[in-house]
Structure to design on (299 residues):
């Protein structure tokens, strides 16, 4: 029961965003831009500015890259077996290979472990954003009619404000730059990031309309994202020389639903957006059942 008491406040915030969007029909783009271009970069800057950069960051990078590539490899095999088109394969990659570490995973870790786990969660969020803005954009563009994944991914890297926040924080940290009272202003903005991104996810879910889709594809996405992903993550982190708390966070973050940003990529490049949006909604709803199981097994 305590697992549901942890998830209850998270889904309460998601639900608030969902209801507010249904009532007022806000322009979600503005909320997303506020979070993506202002709030989250300040949150990331603060993490990299205040925390000591250790070699564990390298292991987190290995974990994130390994997890995504193994799931992409699995999707490729399944796509060949089922004779999916390139567009269908790329849509399945978008639905399975990228975690919702920002809107879902980071708040979940904060509720579970408090500030002790927040640093790891934020670093994983940055790495996930980097992967989505490279591999994610690549597969979204590859599945489009233009099929120019490499150029689209390279262009996307330049529009990643949270990565710039991480770089600036890293530089200030290593050069011992003291920003003085400005840190109080940074804290005010950074502390607003997590509530806003959670509300934004609820608003995004309110805009998703379940459509008639291939049940086999959706069930494959659900099984790969919510069941296979945490198992693969557990196998990867098993041999990594990091502490147990970091391993637990890595596995839990891998069990989060499909990243909300993949829906935007699918719509932008017309890479079967019907499939990707349905997978995002299905994995988010069903995670209410699967996340407690993962938490029970790893914590």
């Amino acid at each position: 029961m305590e697992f549901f008491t942890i998830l209850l406040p998270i889904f309460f915030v998601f639900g608030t965003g969902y209801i507010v969007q249904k009532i007022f029909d806000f322009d979600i783009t503005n909320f997303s831009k506020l979070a993506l271009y202002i709030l989250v970069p300040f949150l990331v800057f603060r993490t990299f500015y205040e925390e000591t950069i250790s070699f564990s960051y390298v292991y987190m990078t290995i974990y994130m890259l390994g997890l995504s590539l193994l799931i992409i490899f699995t999707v490729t095999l399944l796509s060949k077996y089922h004779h999916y088109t390139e567009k269908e394969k790329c849509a399945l990659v978008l639905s399975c290979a990228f975690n919702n570490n920002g809107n879902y995973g980071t708040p979940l870790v904060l509720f579970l472990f408090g500030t002790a786990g927040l640093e790891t969660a934020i670093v994983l969020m940055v790495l996930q954003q980097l992967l989505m803005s490279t591999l994610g954009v690549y597969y979204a563009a590859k599945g489009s009619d233009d099929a120019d994944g490499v150029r689209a991914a390279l262009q996307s890297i330049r529009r990643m404000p949270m990565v710039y926040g991480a770089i600036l924080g890293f530089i200030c940290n290593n050069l011992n730059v003291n920003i003085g009272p400005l840190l109080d202003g940074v804290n005010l903005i950074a502390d607003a990031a997590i509530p806003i991104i959670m509300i934004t996810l609820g608003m995004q879910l309110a805009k998703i309309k379940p459509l008639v889709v291939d049940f086999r594809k959706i069930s494959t996405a659900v099984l790969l994202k919510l069941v296979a992903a945490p198992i693969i993550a557990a196998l990867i982190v098993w041999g990594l020389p990091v502490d147990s708390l970091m391993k637990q966070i890595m596995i839990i973050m891998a069990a989060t639903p499909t990243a909300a940003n993949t829906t935007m990529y699918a719509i932008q490049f017309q890479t079967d957006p019907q499939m990707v949006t349905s997978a995002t909604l299905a994995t988010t709803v069903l995670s209410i059942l699967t996340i407690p199981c993962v938490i029970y097994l790893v914590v």
About this structure: The mean pLDDT is 87. The chain has one domain: 2-298.
